[in-house]
Design goal:
The chain has three domains: 90 residues, no CATH class; 137 residues, no CATH class; 169 residues, no CATH class. Strand 2 and strand 3 form a beta hairpin. It contains ten helices and 14 strands. The chain starts with a strand and ends in a 28-residue tail after the last helix. It is an alpha+beta fold.
């Protein structure tokens, strides 16, 4: 059987062809854009579809049973996306989504302001599939904002230029701008994720320039070509306008992105310089690795403002590592910190933790800040596991790191790529996984997390 899909005002028209017949089928979708039925030209139902709230296929006639997958006809389904039914996953274009665990396979390259639910960058629509959809597999709100801004800006430019003469050109200009905005935002996010975290002013400027250039090139090409075609240019002329627009956008975006990256990094470094001076440390120099400096730094940035975060900590040291900590640092030579969770005689976690720091944590104030926050996240995770009498299970370590790196990356630190263990853990312990991976805030930390570098006076809030 051969299927040809094309867009129509109501969704899709599907040409259903085989050796005997050739017919058109029509799609019917719900408010979220999920395919719920295929009908023929007479309105007769050919196939019904249904899904649970997170996108798992289920029997349209009996929601208590799964769809057996027979005669699906098309592979589109939940929110209009492509189902890879052999694997039970959904291709959302930007990322691949697992509806069984309600998690993406990779983190979202962008975050949504101060909404703490967005810091679980693997989660789907901030845990609310009834209210939101995720058309591209990336941040739906940021991309939506980019579409509106791009559409309005391009429409304004075209109106000022005298290129809007009818309703079609009006909506065409807005649509081109919206598409350029979405594409630029998406490419910029992917570039940012690929580049990682800047550790010097030069790398911050370089990263900002590359991110800006990538976004500017993509958006400029689409804007240039799209506007030319909307205004009646031929294919070749439109393509040339796209190349010119892409080149201009790339250069402009690179310059502005580099400047922005440098300014942002400099503001962050200025905050650390002020703190170092207040702590009696040499500004801009590596911090001498010892417990005195560790405790001084911890008190200044964290303990003075969030003492409850340390209530379950038994040991907090650089100078007195246990053999367990030494073995951990020897195994993972780039590790800056290690949190050891205490266990009872039954093997369950007690909720108490001991935290150890290697010399690598003291390379800079920035590194020490990230390391302390990362390990404090583990402290909170183990406190929760102790409160429910949990013991170690397969995949737990991966889930713990997703939560800790989720906090760290949200303040400009390193990100984390799951090894797949968390997915197995979520299948067996979904509620626990949601807790320790940061979907819910179960610690005493403030839920409305904001990055610390909004002022030069220090952190506003800490949480994950």
């Amino acid at each position: 059987m051969r299927k040809l899909q094309c867009f129509s005002l109501g969704g899709y028209l599907i040409q259903n062809s085989n050796s005997a017949t050739d017919s058109l089928l029509y799609t019917n979708s719900d408010a979220q854009g999920s395919l719920i039925a295929l009908t023929d030209a007479n309105g007769g139902i050919v196939r019904k579809y249904a899904y649970d709230p997170w996108g798992v296929r289920r029997n349209a006639s009996n929601w208590n049973t799964k769809d057996n997958g027979d005669h699906l006809i098309v592979n589109r389904g939940y929110t209009g996306h492509e189902h890879l039914d052999a694997f039970g996953i959904i291709n959302m274009n930007g990322r691949v989504y697992d509806p069984l665990t309600a998690m993406f396979f990779s983190p979202d390259p962008a975050l949504i302001g101060s909404n703490w639910l967005s810091y679980n960058r693997y989660g789907y629509c901030m845990g609310n599939p009834f209210k939101y959809t995720d058309p591209s597999g990336n941040n739906p709100f940021l991309l939506g904002l980019a579409a509106v801004i791009g559409g309005v800006v391009n429409l304004g430019i075209q109106m000022i230029s005298g290129n809007i003469h009818n309703v079609g050109q009006f909506f065409g200009a807005f649509g081109v701008g919206a598409l350029a905005g979405i594409t630029g935002s998406w490419i910029g996010g992917l570039t940012s994720t690929a580049l990682g975290t800047a550790t010097t002013l030069g790398s911050a400027i370089g990263n900002g320039a590359l991110i800006g250039a990538g976004a500017g090139t993509a958006g400029g090409f689409i804007g240039g070509a799209g506007n030319a075609w909307v205004n009646g240019a031929g294919f070749g002329d439109g393509l040339m306008a796209g190349f010119v627009g892409g080149l201009t956008g790339g250069i402009t975006g690179g310059i502005l992105g580099g400047i922005g990256g440098g300014i942002s990094y400099s503001k962050e470094e200025a905050a650390f310089r002020v703190a170092e001076k207040n702590m009696g440390l040499k500004p801009g120099a590596p911090i001498q690795a010892n417990d005195d400096n560790l405790n001084r730094f911890t008190d200044y940035w964290y303990k003075s403002q969030y003492p409850d975060a340390f209530k379950t900590v038994d040991v907090w040291t650089h100078d007195h590592p246990t053999q367990e900590a030494l073995d951990a640092f020897a195994t993972k030579t780039d590790a800056a910190g290690y949190t050891s969770a205490a266990k009872g005689a039954n093997g369950n976690y007690t909720g108490r933790s001991s935290v150890f720091f290697s010399d690598k944590a003291f390379l800079s104030s920035r590194q020490l800040y990230y390391t302390i926050g990362h390990e404090l996240t583990h402290v909170g995770q183990f406190a929760y596991l102790g409160s429910i009498g949990f013991s170690y299970q397969k995949g737990l370590a991966d889930a713990l790191e997703i939560g800790a790196y989720g906090w760290e990356s949200s303040v400009g630190g390193s990100s984390y790529t799951s090894n797949g263990g968390a997915a197995r853990f979520m299948l067996n312990y979904p509620y626990v996984a949601e807790k320790i991976m940061g979907t819910y805030n179960y610690t005493n930390f403030h839920p409305d997390f904001c990055p610390i570098f909004e002022t030069l006076s220090g952190p506003k809030k800490f949480g994950w």
